[in-house]
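Incident log, structure service

09:12 report received: a user says their structure output differs between two submissions of the same chain.
09:20 pulled the input from the user's history:
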Amino acid sequence: MNSKQFRHRVEFDSRLETLMPSQWETLWTVVRARVELLRREPDAGYSTETVLVTALLVVAAIAVLAIIVAKVTSKANSIDM
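09:34 re-ran on a clean worker, output below:
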């Protein structure tokens, strides 16, 4: 790495260091605001039951799809040409 590349790298790193704290502060502010909103309105989020039922339905759909694929593959492999 020559001196020009090194200076460019140092300038880039210093810009990155000044940019990152403001982005982290913004992210932290947004997260804190959303947590505060959920504390004020606890019914605003999904209930545990809703999330659980949705997850179970997704698992059931994947299982049904796997069974169908296995049966179709089995039938296709049993066909003689």
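09:41 both user submissions now match this output. Likely a transient worker issue. Closing.
09:42 reviewer note: Helices lie at 3-40, 48-78. The mean pLDDT is 78.
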